Amino acid sequence: MEWTRSETLAVAMHNCAQCHGSGLRLGKRGAVGPCNCVMRAIFRICFDRFVRCVTQERHLSRVSLEPHSGRSRPSTWGRKDEEYIADFSLIARRTLDDFEHRLFRYHFILGADWKLCSRKLGLDRGNFFHAIYRIEQKLGRVFREMEPYSLFPLDEYFQGPSKTITGRLHIVPKNQNPPKPAHLRFPVPVGKTA
Ligand SMILES: [Zn+2]
């Protein structure tokens, strides 16, 4: 995917020393890419939503009807909050290496502070925060770049139309008459003519 200024501007840190608030910066190979402040902001927005989903009362989770591209069934019922929790956890598991995932679990999921994490993982304070930044940047990027359904922006994840189905919708031209329903034919009783 291509990162654009209109997308990064809203989440970039206005006082960022790297991008000066634009959210974009030149990479090592001369290509324009998202600034680290943007990816960390995306991670935090997604993480806040994750915390809301896992801590809310069960009865607040809503069932929603989602269109999809299957031929036999045009839509299915789903629980978006539960799907989001599962997607968030699965992406973290797949994206992070073992050490990063342990730190992710201790700090973000179990709520351990830097002192506890440092003791458990043998890190000093500086390395702890470097690792946290690295985790936030890695996950923030994947949450946005994942295809076909990205976790971010959240409103598209939770309410947006299915990309696949909009691409495959069969539209009947205005002047074309819809096909007539076939006439029902009932069995004729024996001894009578139709
Ligand atoms: Zn920045």
Description:
- The chain has a domain at 40-161: Up-down Bundle (Butyryl-CoA Dehydrogenase, subunit A, domain 3).
- A hairpin with a 5-residue loop joins strand 1 (24-26) and strand 2.
- The chain has a two-stranded antiparallel ribbon. It has a two-stranded antiparallel sheet with strand order 3-4.
- It is mainly α and 194 residues long.
- Helix 2 packs across helix 3 (80-95), helix 2 (36-55) packs across helix 6 (125-145) and helix 3 crosses helix 6.
- The longest helix has 21 residues, at 125-145.
- Mean pLDDT is 83; it is low at 163-175.
- The protein is globular and about 95 Å long.
- It contains 8 helices and 4 strands; from the N terminus they run H-E-E-H-E-E-H-H-H-H-H-H.
- Helices cover 48% and strands 8% of the residues.
- It has helices at 5-8, 36-55, 80-95, 98-109, 114-121, 125-145, 154-159, 163-168, and strands at 24-26, 32-34, 63-67, 75-79.
- Zinc ion is lined by residues 12-13, 16, 18-19, 35, 37.
- The site of zinc ion has 7 residues, from loops.
Gist of the model:
By secondary structure, this protein is mainly alpha-helical. The protein has eight helices and four strands; from the N terminus they run H-E-E-H-E-E-H-H-H-H-H-H.
